[in-house]
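Researcher: Sequence recovery benchmark, item below. Answer with residues only.
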């Protein structure tokens, strides 16, 4: 005898399957290396430290439009800076950045339905 319960469609979720971290020691000087890494490895999330990026430069033009960016630059002197890149297929629920001297970004993600 078959069940009379309605069939539930199974959900398919996209999770972060690769998370990469690197200290770039200046994003401008490492752009080509980073572009090659992103193209070859396609990480779901990339965490960069010591970006030395400046707010007035805007959002970096890397990743061929396949990533969202969260950036926390050092405010009062050169150096420092952190960046988190998440693939466009990752649903980010919450982003927090520090307002003090510590360069901290917190990103909470949840799997996205395919």
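Model:
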């Amino acid at each position: 005898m078959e069940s009379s319960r309605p069939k539930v469609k199974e959900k398919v979720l996209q999770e972060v399957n690769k998370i990469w971290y690197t200290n770039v020691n200046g994003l401008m000087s490492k752009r080509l290396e980073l572009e090659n890494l992103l193209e070859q490895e396609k990480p779901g999330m990339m965490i960069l430290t010591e970006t030395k990026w400046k707010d007035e430069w805007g959002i970096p033009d890397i990743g061929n439009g396949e990533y969202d960016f969260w950036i926390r630059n050092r405010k009062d002197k050169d150096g420092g800076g952190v960046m988190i890149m998440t693939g466009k297929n990752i649903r980010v629920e919450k982003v927090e950045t520090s307002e003090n001297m510590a360069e901290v970004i917190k990103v909470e993600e949840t799997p996205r339905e395919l």
